[in-house]
Amino acid sequence: MIKEEAVSVLAQVGQYSWCIALVGICVGLYGWRVAYKNSIKLATRSESKSLIDSVSKLVNDISDLSIDFWLNKSSSIGDGNNDEQMQKEILIKANQSSSYLFNVLAKALQITKISEVLALRGLLIPDNLLASVLEKTTLDCETAYKMNDAVRTQRTQEIVSSCTDVIHALYKTFQHYHPPAKQVSFFQVIRKKYKEIDDWHKSLN
Which of 64, 107, 108, 163 has the smallest count of CB within 10 Å of its CB? Predict the structure, then answer.
């Protein structure tokens, strides 16, 4: 009798083996789908972070170029020089300012191109912050050697501050769209699922 009941149970299980196999396939497909979506999300986050790091490096390069130019290469021309020496010094200053301006604008163009890619991902850099960097770095740079040390030092501080604002805005936007993962304990997951089931049960009543 016991053997017959065991055979009967096994026969019933065998009748639904296709259903068990189908559930297993569905679970496997769902798990693959979740893993695939997570991998896409992580890849997108990594790519966006790489682009933001590139912009941050370019902004830092502009800051370093500006510090060197405004503090070191824009010193005043000595009054004791004769006319010929004075003209040579002015020519050197003009060449230095042209080289500085070219480098800054080249890096600014790179930032603009990368910003367009970031904008497609929803990561926007405020235009006013980039405009402020360009204004502070390039305005009157051709005549920087005519300014006194205090004015050039103040300009350098303003440039560094503007560059810092851009970098801060970059990473703030990134954190908004790609917040860091939070550690959730097993019990917190169980508690959350229990609450969802409880809310669903209450909605039926």
Answer: 64
DSSP assignment string, 47-62: HHHHHHHHHHHHHHHH
163 sits in which H/E element: helix 149-177
CB 138 within 8 A of CB 79: no
Structural domain spans, the chain: 45-179
pTM for this structure?
A: 0.68
Q: Report the 10 Å Cβ neighbour count for 34.
A: 10
- Which residues fall within 8 angstroms of residue 125, CB to CB, at 6 or more apart? 55, 111, 115, 118, 166, 169, 170, 173
Please list, in sequence order, all residues whose beta carbon lies within 8 angstroms of the beta carbon of residue 60, skipping any fewer than 6 positions away: 163, 167
Query: What SS3 class is residue 125?
Result: coil
For residue range 75-123, list pLDDT tens digits in order: 777 665 677 777 888 888 888 889 999 999 999 999 989 988 888 888 8
Which numeric CATH code is attached to 45-179?
1.20.120
DSSP code at position 178: S
Longest dimension (CA), the chain: 123
